[in-house]
Every structure is written in C-alpha cells, then in structure tokens.
Amino acid sequence: MSQLSDSIPRLTPPVSTDQLRELITGNDTMIDPKKLKDTVSFLDAGADSLDFFNLIVAIQEAYGITIPDSDLSQVNTLDKLARYLNARLP
Amino acid sequence: MYEELILDLPFKGDRDYLRLADILPALIELARDRFGPQADVDSLTIRRPFRRGIQVSFEPSVAFSGSFRVRHGRENTPGWLLETERPVTRRIRFDSSLLSAVAVSGPGFAQILEPLPGFTAFDVVVTLMKQVAAQVNRRHWWMCQLNLETPLTGVFPVEVRIRQNLNGQFLLFDIVQAGTAIGSARGILEGVSSQEAIIVPVI
Q: Do A2 and B76 touch (CB under 8 A)?
C-alpha cells in the first residue's frame, strides 16, 4: 500500500481505464482492485467517500482539469470517467 | 511474528472519540521507538472515528479503520490502525476555544501567529482546519487525512488554507508553516464519512 501523494505526475490524454486504475489502486484506498472492473461503480468496488474525493483530486491534478460538482454523477465508473475526460481534454 | 501494539490514548475534553491530532503524536512516538529517532509519520488516514482503544499493526489487515506511513531514512513503512474492544478509560482536560480565540481568519484561510502553551502543533492545525471549514458549512467536519511533505514542527505562524472544495462535502487544505507549504489535509462533512453514506446519489 502506498499513500496518496500530493505531487501527482501530470498525465496526457488519451485517458485509458488502465491508466485510471493505476492512479486509483496506487493510493491508500478501500477499493478492492479485483472488483474494480471498467463498468463497476467505485462504490461497488469498495470505495468510500474519502476514496472518491481523493480520486477526483488526483485526476484533476494529473490531467490539469476541473471537474465541476454538477458532473460528479457522470463519473462513477472507470469507463464513464475515461470517456468524460477524453471528451474534455485537448 | 504477531506483535500487539496498543496506543493508550485518553479522550480530550468532552469528546467521546479520538481524533487525528490525538493519534498522530502517539504514532510518531511509536515510530521512533521502532525505527529510530529520525523516523516520522508523514501520512495518516482515519476512515471513521475511533471510540475505543487503537491497535497498531505493521501487517496488512482487512479490518482496518485507519492507515499511516512511517518515513525512516530512505524507506517508507506502511501501517494500519484497528479499533479494539478495549474501552478508553482516561479523559484529560482540553479546551480548544483558547486556540480559536487567537486565530486570525479571512476568506479561505486561518492562522495562528504564536504558540500557545499546552497545545501541540497538531492541535493548532486541526483547530485552524475546523475554523476554515466552518466558513463553508457550520456543521461538524471530520478531519480524516494528513499528508506531510516535511515534519510539522513548533515553528509559527501556522496557517491552513482551502485548496479545493468538492461539492461542499470535502475540503482539501494546504498546511503552511512560517510561509512554507509543508503538507495537506482533508476534511469530510459529518454524515458522509462512512462507506454507507458515500456521497449518494453522486457516485
């Protein structure tokens, strides 16, 4: 297990679910990597609210993007998150 | 080999739970006993309030309620916190209103310029986080994660700034000591800290 670092390396698009999975499971998390399939919600994979918060912060810092609060409901799986980011990143 | 390490911590003031600032100094002491005087705890996460005694483990456990990382030399060692069945039997006096009274705050930040006898730097940081968080929502905030790039020392002023506000439920803070950012902390609004309460229907 490693802890979330605030110095997250900048990543470039296109975003893949594998890239996101690595970003998530490389951190201190309740998420079970075995359950974290592309279309399984983070909640069903074991995430708690802190995990989701850390995930959003890590992604925003890694990709230099701001995810508005109103869009959070659109990014509850790896697949949806990757599609969301690829649609918005240059 | 199984080794039982228990943190013998009292409740502070009228609280019936142990908070991040209570646990961190005890963990640092334990880390230095185990890894040497230069060891430090650079990360601590608490997933829920601890209302009973805390067992420390350096072996992975599925039943953990918190986790931490010890930095010693060039190595990092992870650890886990488990809540035991042992009741917390001690209570000590603690009144953080003295800290709140001397804090200077403005939009998105709060700072304390001078040390106050009887309070640790961790007490100061938590008090400042709560003060800043109250600008967002006056309900109770649970300070659940601390990451330190460099150790928190007794140097003042200490300042806490909001870096990010997610959905009014999560706050990411920068911790600044004598003008230098030394780490970050996270706070969750009470009521969304358990697994069951995961920001439904957001996720």
A: yes
Per the structure, how many domains does chain A have?
1
Model ipTM value: 0.78
User: Cβ separation of B60 and A1 shorter than 8 Å?
Assistant: yes
Could you name the CATH architecture of B97-189?
Roll (3.10)
Judged by CB atoms closer than 8 Å, whether chains meet at B198 and A5 is answered as no
Interface test with B, best of A8, A50, A70, A74 (most B CBs within 10 A): A50
Is pTM beyond 0.90? Reply is no
Q: What is the 3-state secondary structure (H, E, C) of chain B?
A: CCCCEEECCCEECCCCCECHHHHHHHHHHHHHHHHCCCCEEEEEEECCCECEEEEEECCCCCCCCEEEEEEECCEEEEEEEEEEEEECCCEECCCCHHHHHHCEEECCEEEECCCCCCCCHHHHHHHHHHHHHHHHCCCCEEEEEEEECCCCCCCCCEEEEEEEEECCCEEEEEEEECCEEEEEEEEEECCCCCCCCCCCCCC
Average pLDDT of the segment spanning A35-60: 89
Q: Is A9 among the domain residues?
A: no
Taking the domains of chain B in order of start, what are their residue ranges?
A: 5-92, 97-189
Chains A, B: CB pairs < 8 Å: 86
State how far residue A13 is from chain B, nearest Cα, in angstroms.
Answer: 23
The string of pLDDT tens digits covering residues B56-77 is: 999 887 788 899 999 999 999 9
**B172·A57 Cβ contact <8 A:** yes
With CB atoms and an 8 Å threshold, state whether A3 touches B78: yes
Is A65 within 8 Å of chain B by CB?
A: no
**A49-71 tens-digit pLDDT:** 888 888 888 888 888 899 998 89
